[in-house]
Each structure stands twice: as structure tokens, then as C-alpha cells.
Amino acid sequence: MTADGERPATAIDEIMDRFLDDHAKLDPIMATTFGVTGHDTDLPDLSPDARADVSALRRQTLAALDEAEPADAVDRATVAAAREQLTVSELIRATGAEESWLNNIDSPVQTVRQVFDLMPTSTLEDWEAIGTRLGKVPATIASYIASLSFAAARDTVSPQRQVVAATRQSLANAGADGFFATLAEKASTDRSLPRSLRTYVQHNAQQAADAYQTLATFLGEELFAQASADDPVGEERYALFARHHLGTSPDLAEAYEWGQAELSRISAQRRTTAERIKPGSTVQEAMAHLTEDPARRLSGVAALQAWLQEKADSAVAALAGTHFDIPEPLRTLECRIAPADGGIYYTGPSDDFSRPGRMWWPEPAGVTEFSTWREVSTVYHEGVPGHHLQVGQTVYRRDVLNRWRRLGSWVSGHGEGWGLYAEQLMAELGFLDDPGDLLGMLSSQSFRAVRVVLDVGMHCGLDAPAEVGGGRWTDEKAMSLLRAHTSKSEERLRYELDRYLGLPGQAASYKLGERAWLRLREDVRAIEGDSFDLKDFHRRALDVGSVGLDVLSAAVLGEFDN
Fold it and tell me: Which of 133, 137, 117 is nearest to 208 (CA)?
């Protein structure tokens, strides 16, 4: 340790920090998302040549790691995590998935637009940065179209379902009421900005909207004709994507059976809880009762945002110093309302915490009434002790972890698994004793269990459960299962099904990740016996950062110590 208690930087740290900086130059959206400064006026080149440059960087980094000698347990964990993530990324690239990447939730169609959500709008300099970045949207969209065309020429095209969804989203962004028009309107009405800057932002926002119109035309008129109606990727390819999202290679048949058993277990808990809420009622009747309860309703987006903020702040105050160590910079968490083009999500703080962690709730079109019983456990999932504590704690540990471990490493099974673990933990700690709030959490858990069944089952061609008729999966069987075990709108369920089929392995990573977290806790408890301390376990586990589940387990169990 240095005199101020920080762990000295090692050769491994330097390799991975260099990788982070070089990757940020190639992918400024990633840089902004992870809080890496210096690239907030840029957008990535998404052309085939630029993607080859990213691949070359990964391979160079892997070679450098092979030559370097780890200095301690932290280094050994870093090497294991980096090798896993970079190697799997290269394996996915070999399938042609990079150039053809297109879906309804996590592709350039969404990320190029969403990066503007993270940009501040308080000062003249902020708007200058937005205007500059807006001006680069057309080139980035053109390079993305080049990659999609490159992939199509090699018969690698995302399924029709994803092309249709992406076309619809692109048209929405391009429209008169779309995101870019709304952003331009915000600038035009800010009289503190010089007229020239307002004109600059408006002009470039229109250029960005036009670029999305061009993308929509390409997708709808050219790419759709080359796309297949078949959605499943098959067991071999699915296993690769599952490994990417989990950082481990699950037994897919076992995971499928477990998902069905977990869904059955949660369904029984929901029925029991519904009986507590309204004796003699079904789950659906209990939900309707909760939704009609005036004490559990909010009117208007402003009221929703205020309630979310109060709930998040209360969780921080209640957990800090009792069940968790929460450093002071992490005690600020902002709740924001997002454009209605996706689900609820979290964005982490910047490296210096000048941009705090934020929870984002979409504003569904035409919806003005909200039920709090549905949202309580989700606040804990996205905020504290969920993603905000998890991500923020990692960013904060600059005394131990290199910048790549703190800012650039994210594995869904670890992150989303922790989010579900956080919901379950809050129930264990008594924060969901209200039966309505508990039913909300169980409904969330049921939704995530359905995801395992659909994600694994449909992509791997496994027989559908008897509940929906068995045999080969169809859209109707999938929707039937979703309707039976969730309370979301028909529109939302269609969006979710499209998501599972377009992003193989990611949806299942939530529940499979939670299972890994719970198993790890019990493994540590079995080893430590009466000396086991839950607060200490959480601190040690979160200090590892977001790594694959195999690396997480090895680090917490001390397998990198020697």
C-alpha cells in the first residue's frame, strides 16, 4: 500500500486502464455511459473497419495480459475477468453478430439516441457539447448502415421482428414529436442561450432526426427484405451469448427446468399474498384491488418522480451504516423521467461523481395514473441496495481497483442478478412487509422467472411447458405464459417478447444471476459459520466490482489469494 492507503498501480492495471482509454476513443457512447470523460462531443464510427479496430484492441490487450505477471489477488481477478470478457467478445464477433447487431432495446438504434439523456443541459458549454454531438449523428448512422449492409451481404441479418421494431423506433425519433425535435425545442426556448447557439442546436437536431429517417427507410425498404422470419438462434449460439451475459457457462437444460420450477414456486407465493390482501381473491383480483386503492395511486409524472425520489432517499437513509457501508458520494441518487422508448434503467455516476447515479423511469404515452405497489421493489432494484450501491461502490473503490474494473467492466448476470438479490434482501429485512408491496416484488420476480423459461426455451428449441400446450414454442404460447404470470399491458408484453428474441441470454441473466448471488452467500455462510456477517459479505462482494459470475465466486472465496 502507498502512504495514503491506496494499492500501488501494477502492470496489469496499466494494461487494462490503457484498454479502457483506447476503447473510449473508439466508442464515445460507452465512455459517456460509464463516466469516462473527454469524449462527450463525439460519437463512434460503427463501420466494419472501425469494428475491426475494436477487435484488434481486444486481441492486443489479451496478448499483453499473457505477457504480464499478476502482482496480487486483485491482479489475478482482473486478468481472469478481462480474459473472459474479451475472449467471449471475440467469439461473438466471429459469428458476424457485431456488424448485424440490431434489436429493440440494446443496439445503436437505441444507444445513439439515449446517450443524449446523460448529457447535462445547465450551461452554455453543455448545449455547445450537445450541439456538436448532434452534428455527428448523421455520420454515425451512415456508418451503422454500412455495417448492416456489410453483414447482409454475408447473409447475416437480424430477424424481421427486430427490423420492424427498430424501424418503428427510428421513425419515432425522426418525427415531429420525436426525441430530437423535443431536444431542439428545449434549446430554442432557453433565452439564456445565444441565438446562434439555439440555431446551431436546432439545425443539428434536425440533421439527427433526418438521419434516423434515413435509417428507418433503409431498415424498412432494404434490410427487411433480407431478414428471416425465424427468431431462435439455436442452442450452440445461445450458449455463447449466455456465457457473455453471465460470465459462466450454465447447463441450459437444467436452467430451463429450474426456471419452470422457480416460476411455480413464485406463483404459489403470489396466491398466498393475494389472500392476505383480499381474502378469497385471485392474484389478478388482488392486483386490481391494489390499483384501485387511492392510497397507492399517484396522479401525474411529477408526482411519480417525487415519490420515486422520496422512496430512494429513504432507502439510503435506512440502510447506510446498518446493513451496508454507503460512502458519502453514493448518498446522492437522482430519479429522472425518460422518454418512453424502453424500460426502467439505471446509469452510474461519473468517475469524479460530478454526475450522480440516476434511476430512469419511462413516461408511457397517455398514462397519467401510477400505482405505487408495482414500483417499490423496483426502486430498491435500481437504487439502494441495488444498482446504485453496486455500481457506485465499484466506482468509489479507486484505492483498490483500476479504472477498467471500476468503470468499464459490466456483466449482466452480476449486475442484474444483484438487482434481483437486492429486491429479495429488502423483503428479508422487512422493507416489503406490506402485502401490497410484497405482491409487487413477487410479480417482478415472476416476470423474471418467465424470462428464463422463454429465453432459454425458445432459443434452444426446448419443448414448451404443459401449461401452454407443450410442443414447439410459438408466439401465442409465449404470450400466453407472459399473460398468466405478469400484470403488464399487452403492448409491453409484445415489447418484452421481441426483446428476449432479439437479445439472446440477457433476459435469463437476471434470475440466473440472482441464483448465483444467493448460492454464493450461502457458500460463504457455510464456510464462516457463526462468524458470518451479512454486512461484511456485501462489502467484500461489491468490492470485487462487476465481473463474471465465475470470477465473482472465486474472488469472494479467496481463490485468487495464492
Answer: 137
